[in-house]
Amino acid sequence: MKKINIILSFILFVSLLGGLSYTKAATSTLSVHVINVGQGDSIFIKAPTGETVLVDAGKSGTAVVNYLKKQKVSTLTAVVSTHPDADHNWTL
Questions:
Q1: How many CA atoms are closer than 13 Å to the CA of 33, on its beta-carbon side?
Q2: φ, ψ for residue 53, nearest 5 deg
Q3: What pLDDT is attached to residue 33?
């Protein structure tokens, strides 16, 4: 339940952030990707306006880096660690 609240909070944050800069056509969508990083998950969010957010990255970071390369992501707008445990932010 806590992870869902975090996800929804970030979706709201990114949606509001995107709405402040400019408005795009209604066909644009917000993308939320959950990446398996072993013991937990990392969350990659891409707003319709192009902003990108990464929440947690796991211990090794290999899965996240490979996934972001596959998605052709070269920069992130924001990186968030939910709490300071190694299995959440070791590679941030």
A1: 18
A2: -130, 135
A3: 92
